[in-house]
Write a structure and sequence with these properties.
Elements: E1 12-16, E2 23-30, E3 33-40, H1 45-55, H2 58-61, E4 74-78, H3 90-95, E5 97-102, E6 105-111, E7 115-120, E8 134-138, E9 146-151, E10 154-157, E11 172-178, E12 187-193, E13 218-225, H4 229-232, H5 235-241, H6 247-250, H7 252-266, E14 270-277, H8 278-291, E15 294-300, E16 307-314, E17 318-327, H9 328-331, H10 336-345, H11 347-354, E18 359-367, E19 373-381, H12 389-409, E20 416-424, H13 432-439, E21 463-465, E22 474-476, E23 479-481, E24 484-489, E25 493-498, H14 504-509, E26 525-531
Helix pairs in contact: 10-11, 12-13
Amino acid sequence: MLNLSIDPHPLHLIARNAIGSDKISLHFKIATRSFNLNRNTTEMLSAFISRLRNNLTPKKLKSDYMDFPEDSEIKLRSHDDEVIDSSTPLLVAFASAGTFVIGPNNYSVFFNPPTINNVKLPSHIMAGCTVYPLVELEFCEMSDLNFEWLFNESILSTEKYFLPNIDLVGKELSFKITHPKANEFVASSQSFYVEAFPGKSPLTFRYSFTMDWLSGLSFRLVSYNILSSIMASTDFAAENMYPYCPEYARKMDYRKQLLYHEFLNYHADIFALQEVDTLFFNTDLKYVMNIHGYSGLHAVKNGQTAEGEAIFFKSSRFRLIHNRRHVLSDHIDSMEDISSFLLSNHNNLLEKLKTKKTILQVVLLEFISNPGHYLLIGNTHLYYKNFDDSIRLLQSVVAVDILTRTLQEHQHLNGTMGYILCGDLNSATTSHAVHYLQTGKLPRTDGNAEAIPGLSHSHDLTLSNVGGTHEYTTLICGFKGVLDWIFTDSRTLRCLQTLPVPSQEDIAILGGIPNVVVPSDHIALVSDLQFMK
């Protein structure tokens, strides 16, 4: 005979059906055998019971003491203890079930119980850097969970994140996650050691300029290429761009702690980020920024590239009015004068432009405390190759046209609208793109020749550089340059301050950026701006 009572603990049957799935998974244990079944949600209960009974024969159980009588009762009872009709589809049956009866045993049925599938901590946990556990959940929210961070069983914090201080360096800590109503399914515990911060960061001095939050019609903007995992992890990058940076320090699992530390010290109202991995945004960045009161929007580059631009803004200060992703190579077709000219005179250049995946992320925000004051932000990362200044010039022309049209589309809004174009433009101070953006006119090359012979074009935006006049914004092996820019509408916005960048000497000591204390190969541009009226 099958001894169905050899397990003295309560018997459970776990039924799960993810949203939108046509499968239901069933997990339970009979004697020493575990059952993990995956059935169609529309399958009849009678078919499931018949299949289960067949699997409980001595031949299937392969044990001489597990003799399951053919007449043993197998049925499903509701929470009201009514027998559920065997013609009921499995999903409906188990969603309303309270008890699953198999012979003499009654299994308590738990349908879609809160569940932790995975918990991940950074591989390096450093004093001074906040730890944000990545928790994969089903059928519950992070707000449902209880957290405990402990040292020697003493609770240090009950927040969902934890900032270890220098006194904890070298010590073993642990953290626990529980659910107040479903702890038997939601329970996780891990231990970790706290490491010392690897050295003095050349970025630290910048935080003395950003200790306070801005208010009223003033706001702080950060434009920052954070270095995608895709770029940082290539063999080419390791050997030619960042040979001074250890492999572990190029991984996002390490760098994200430095990024979050830097982000939070800027007390910024708006972040315009470039090279943001889709996976990192969805599983990590958005969650952490939400904790600190930011709403986030991600715009992926065209094609198969799994990275793009992201804008975060303080939810308490701004409301979202407009959000759109523009593929620059697609938009050129709507600029008939330029596209037809290029088609006739520079078709190779036009075809090359159309192969690029560059986008412009456009977001329109309104101040909550000052209705009628709007910010139109264009965030981009222009094509990178050194000898393609004409491509970047055309991409700048397209970006300005998109901003201009977006301004026109929203001119019905009553109030004042300031506009910003920022990002990694991969363009030096003397580049064609920067000249066009600042002057509104196409540049001429040495000898007064046209940058793109025969092309005539101009724009009416009043773009002023407020990102600073720095010696560099990127400093890697064999290359130093100013590639990052913040341009604003000089008629409506004034610049209150722009943060300086670290000295080249401080960076040179570390070999370049990124390194063990600086997370990206670019330095963030940070500007305090204010509406003039």
